[in-house]
Design goal:
By secondary structure, the protein is of the alpha/beta class. It contains 9 helices and 9 strands. The strands form 3 sheets. The chain has a 5-stranded parallel beta sheet with strand order 2-1-6-5-7. Bound molecules: 3-thiophen-2-yl-1H-pyrazol-5-amine. 3-thiophen-2-yl-1H-pyrazol-5-amine (J9N) binds near residues 137 and 145.
Length: about 240
């Protein structure tokens, strides 16, 4: 997979040189290229923004630099443009899984009050464009949202996670634990500050462990994410009663 990121703060993406993603890049599994939007400005001040038509607070990012940047970065190849914005569709695990199947992604990091709307409209003539929100809160720019999405997507690529098993067990994953958050996890020592590890986890009875974990996940989901419980098929809840 190739990922291009266009931003006026390219240094914001230094974390992508670290850890699993950094290793995946070094091994050639993942090709991430970060571009400074100001490379496509031509005035002395490298201007990327201006006042909004119709008045109002803040500044809007000018269309010209974005148009030239996308033309050069995409260069006619099949790519999907992702634009983080608070007004976008919610980004979910299913989107991470879907986007992990793409050959090329381009992330456009807006700042200020957003990017001139004609940029997305023009890009949509040549490629799929998705406006995406990572949550109902307002950031100063799309860089943090892009880091979040790049991590959520690239960790699903074969070979990026050392142990692909953990990707299946994650919260919100598929594989029978859909719509459930992860339950409690434990490791050595078996007793710590008068708290012992639940005995079922030491029992060696894998069926009992799986049932216990599912029950704990259901309980935690009901406690922390009642909104997901509503989305759960009725029989999944009944199953818990049967298994207790
Ligand atoms: N979910 C989300 C995205 C954003 C921004 C993207 C670009 C500027 S602000 N805030 N919150």
């Amino acid at each position: 997979m190739r990922i291009d990121i266009i931003s006026i703060f390219p240094d914001y993406f230094a974390p992508l040189d670290l850890s699993l993603i950094g290793r995946a890049r070094a091994s050639g599994l993942l090709d991430v290229r970060v571009h400074d939007l100001r490379s496509w400005t031509h005035d002395r001040h490298n201007t990327v923004d201006d006042t909004p038509y119709g008045g109002g607070p803040g500044m809007v990012m000018k269309p010209e630099p974005w148009g030239e940047a996308l033309d050069e970065v995409v260069a006619g190849a099949p790519a999907r443009l992702i634009l983080p914005t608070p007004s976008g569709r919610p980004f979910r695990q299913a989107d991470a899984e879907r986007l992990a199947g793409e050959e090329r992604l381009v992330f456009g990091c807006g700042r200020y009050e957003g990017i001139d709307s004609r940029v997305a409209a023009d890009a949509a003539l040549r490629m799929p464009v998705e406006e995406v929100s990572i949550g109902d809160y307002v950031l100063n720019g799309g860089e943090s949202a892009t880091l979040v999405m790049v991590e959520a997507i690239t960790r699903l690529l074969p070979g990026v996670l050392g142990n692909t098993e953990s990707a299946v067990q994650d919260s919100f994953a598929s594989g029978g634990m859909e719509n459930l958050v992860e339950g409690p996890v434990y490791t050595k020592p078996v007793m710590w500050r008068d708290q012992e590890v639940p005995p079922v986890l030491l029992s060696g009875n894998h069926g009992a462990v799986d049932r216990w974990r599912r029950d704990q996940a259901l309980r935690k989901t009901a406690r922390n994410r009642p909104d997901l419980v509503g989305a759960m098929p009725e029989e999944a809840l009944d199953r818990r009663d049967r298994e207790v």
